């Protein structure tokens, strides 16, 4: 179960091209989840094609 300040972000397919492990997947997810697209989001983990993120509570 997600905490109230957590959110799931679906990652696009290009995040998985050439990725060999979860560390590389997280690096690609960081490229996708930028402050311009998702302000206040910080990646906690990557599970499959979903990034579990923590949102800053304003």
What does this molecule look like?
With 58 residues, the chain is an alpha+beta fold. The protein has one domain (6-55). The chain contains 1 helix and 3 strands, in the order βαββ. The chain has a 3-stranded antiparallel beta sheet with strand order 1-3-2. Strand 2 (41-47) and strand 3 form a beta hairpin. It is globular, with a radius of gyration of 11 Å. The two termini are 22 Å apart. The mean pLDDT is 88.
SSE topology sketch:
Blueprint: E1 6-10, H1 22-32, E2 41-47, E3 50-55
Features:
three-stranded antiparallel β-sheet; globular; 19% helix; 3 strands; 1 helix; alpha+beta; 58 residues
Shape: globular
- Helical content stands at 10-25%
The rounded Rg comes to 11 Å
What does the largest sheet look like? 3 strands, antiparallel
Structural class of the secondary elements?
Answer: alpha+beta
The number of helical elements comes to 1
Low-confidence stretches: none
Mean pLDDT: 88
How much strand?
25-35%
Strand order of the largest sheet: 1-3-2
How far is the N terminus from the C terminus? 22 Å
Strand tally is 3
Order of helices and strands: EHEE
- Count of separate structural domains: 1
């Amino acid at each position: 179960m997600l905490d109230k300040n957590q959110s799931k972000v679906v990652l696009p397919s290009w995040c998985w091209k050439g990725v060999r492990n979860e560390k590389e997947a997280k690096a690609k997810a960081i490229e996708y989840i930028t402050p311009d697209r998702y302000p206040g989001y910080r990646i906690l983990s990557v599970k499959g094609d979903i990034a579990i993120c923590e949102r800053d509570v304003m």
